[in-house]
Amino acid sequence: MTGKTRYAPPRAGAMLEALRGLGYSTASALADVIDNSISAGASEVRVSFDWEGTASRVSVLDNGKGMSDHQLEVAMTLGAKSPLDERAADDLGRFGMGLKTASFSQCRRLTVASRSEGGTISCLRWDLDALASLDSDWNMFEGPAEGSAGFLEPLFALRSGTLVLWENIDRIVTPGSDVSHFGDLSDDVELRLGMVFHRLLEGPGPALKLYLNGKPVRPWNPFMIGHPAKPWHSPVASAATPKGVIAVQCHVLPHKDRLTEDEFKLAAGPEGWTSQQGFYVYRNRRLLLAGGWLGLGQGRAWNREESHRLARIRLDIPNTADADWKIDVKKSTARPPVQVRAWLTRLAEDTRERARRVFAFRGVPAPGPGGVSVEQAWRVERLRDGVRYRIDEAHPAVAAVLEAAGERSALVKAMLRVIEETVPVQRIWLDTAENRDTPRTGFSGESPEATEGVQKVLLTLYRDMTGRRGMSPESAVRTLSTTDPFQNYTALVASLPGWDVAARGSNK
Q1: Which of 326, 378, 464, 481 has the greatest number of CB atoms lying within 10 Å of its CB?
Q2: Half-sphere exposure of residue 393, counting CA atoms within 13 Å on the CB side?
Q3: CB contact at 8 A, 246 and 315
């Protein structure tokens, strides 16, 4: 081998054009820019979408500590910071590329102006068109482009801070775009920024103030913290790794039937219920990955399926673990290291199974008085070659008919067997897949007809229990309150004679 080397720098214009193809969305690109504002200690960040046709622009203004002229030059230089360098614990960056690559993915002219406390404003600019026309090397331009100085004026009112300006936004304003497309994009960006930064916007501690076109960005919490219908969440579990502590908390969200229409729509998130299931990976409370199963699964990687759409898992990693988790430049992918994969798989399996049960039963069957488990009308038999569904003859409604049938009970059992063998499983599965929800039963809903139907069946069983079977009113009520589907209709059960006595007995 020879020790000779050759100097082979990339062509500036060609390199910068190539960096435009990293695949940022407008929202993810802006999130990367806002990361720099947060790392600079900003308490307030203002994003602006200004429509002027092909001269439209996007800007990000923060009140952080700002930069001196030298610091700004370093920040605008590609690769000035190595991902191997040690960083502050609260640093949201890694590669030293985010500001530039994110911006180039959306615009052809990037201008950054900044001032530190007590300093003057410095301004540097990358202009891809100018570089191409001049066949220039890696030369940044000083100051704003001609006619753009006025766009930097919001920075003048701040003692310190930074303004990032995107012009020639050819990836945002494309041929055929109009003001409505521009407005729709800003609305989508608002939703996604509310998701990415929700923990910083919510607190605890001094909360970040984030605005888009002067309107506060509303945080979107994927986990519906504090909602009364939420069936389950786990304690926070943690695991020590060579690169720091990983913390996990598992959540199962309420079924659609337990939410209002507005709550259901809001909880779906920007990508919708099915896509938003899975792990939410955070670093320093900033969301990196929203949903997905991180390639985990027994035998093969899990897909995002309707039956698990209520499962969401919060996962916190330290910024020292970026390399181990294979965090990319866009902060959009993550792969758990080998030492925690089995642990995460076990936690996810439990959460997925809980979520599947809630999805299948339209919410967790509420326990009756005294926490007694609910009697289900159907039971599942797990066989070597699959599962089979059978009507439970011990269910009060079924048992009452079999007892009353006497010598004709065999005829009733034959009818039940026909029902068992002809349950339209494939049709139910298909309808669930197409409608993205479990089919409704005759008792579902809150219409007068549905309520009247439940009440008729409930009274029929109650009269049979207290009449033919000789049960006391309180015993009959206690049984019905723990019988599917009547445990979902507590007001109707409470209207039966004997409820007060049954309730007092359960609280003893």
Answers
A1: 481
A2: 10
A3: yes
Task: Please give the Cα distance from 241 to 263 (Å, whole number).
Answer: 38
How do residues 309-361 score in pLDDT, each as one tens digit?
A: 999 999 999 989 988 998 887 777 889 999 999 999 999 999 999 999 898 87
Are 396 and 457 in a shared domain? yes
The answer to whether residue 2 sits within a structural domain is no
Burial level of 120, CB count in 10 A (0-12/13-18/19+)? exposed
What residues form DSSP beta bridges with 317? 283
What is the H or E stretch that residue 141 is in? strand 141-142
Q: pTM above the 0.70 mark?
A: yes
Number of domains in the chain: 3
Q: What CATH code is carried by the domain that includes residue 19?
A: 3.30.565.10
Which letter, b or e, does each residue of 221-238 get, where b requires 16 or more Cβ atoms within 10 Å of its Cβ? bbbbeeeeebbbbbeeee
Which among 12, 18, 28, 14 has a CA at the least distance from the CA of 329? 28
29 vs 330: CA distance, rounded Å: 8
Judged against a pLDDT cut of 90, whether residue 73 lies above it is answered with yes
Cβ(330)–Cβ(22) below 8 Å: yes
Where would I find the beta strands (DSSP E) of 180-226? 209-212, 215-216
Residue at a domain's end among 216, 243, 271: 216
- Any idea what the Cα angle at residue 401 is, between residues 505 and 393, rounded to 5°? 75
Q: How far apart are CA 360 and CA 239, in angstroms?
A: 32
Contact 253, 310 (CB under 8 A): yes
* Region of residue 63 (left: phi > 0; alpha: psi -120 to 50; beta: else): alpha
What is the C-alpha to C-alpha distance for residues 476 and 497, in angstroms, rounded to an integer?
Answer: 9
Q: What is the residue range of 299's domain?
A: 232-360
